[in-house]
Design goal:
single chain; 3-stranded antiparallel β-sheet; rod-shaped
């Protein structure tokens, strides 16, 4: 029991304390419901991601990595990868291939498409390390094989 200034029980303080206790219980209940709702949303989002179109997947992947974009190679251009970053060129090569490729195959396609780094060995080593770092865009599909992440 709370006591007022003159030492007597302050009923208003007890009312506020009880209300605060009820509010805290309600907050805990709502937080629990929110956690369940988030889990359900994540479940459905995962199912949608499995059936999304290639364009939607490219948009989602691009948003996930910021400045790394899967670009359309310019039709008829001899140097479609010349102005792309390593990540952009690798993602574009994999998307265009439609199947997992070895690191060296990705490097060969990038070089043949005008990528500035022309030393295949150095590009392959650099590419392998870079692809490992961008797990939200690239994933291993076997020994030395890479594919776009789902």
């Amino acid at each position: 029991m709370a006591r007022g200034e003159n030492g007597e029980h302050d009923m208003a303080t007890d009312i506020h304390a009880a209300a605060l206790e009820q509010i805290n219980v309600e907050i805990q209940r709502l937080e629990s419901e929110l956690a369940i709702a988030k889990a359900v949303a994540n479940y459905h989002a995962a199912r949608v991601a499995k059936t999304e179109s290639a364009d939607t997947k490219r948009e989602r992947i691009s948003k996930a990595v910021g400045n790394v974009q899967i670009r359309e190679a310019t039709a008829g251009s001899e140097t479609p990868y010349a102005a792309m970053t390593q990540y952009e060129a690798a993602a574009t090569v994999l998307r265009n291939a439609g199947k997992p490729l070895k690191t060296g195959e990705i490097a060969d396609e990038m070089i043949s498409g005008g990528f500035p780094q022309t030393d295949r060995k150095k590009l392959s080593i650099s590419l392998f390390t870079s692809l490992l770092r961008k797990k939200d865009v690239f994933e291993k599909a076997g020994s030395g094989l890479w594919k776009l992440a789902n």
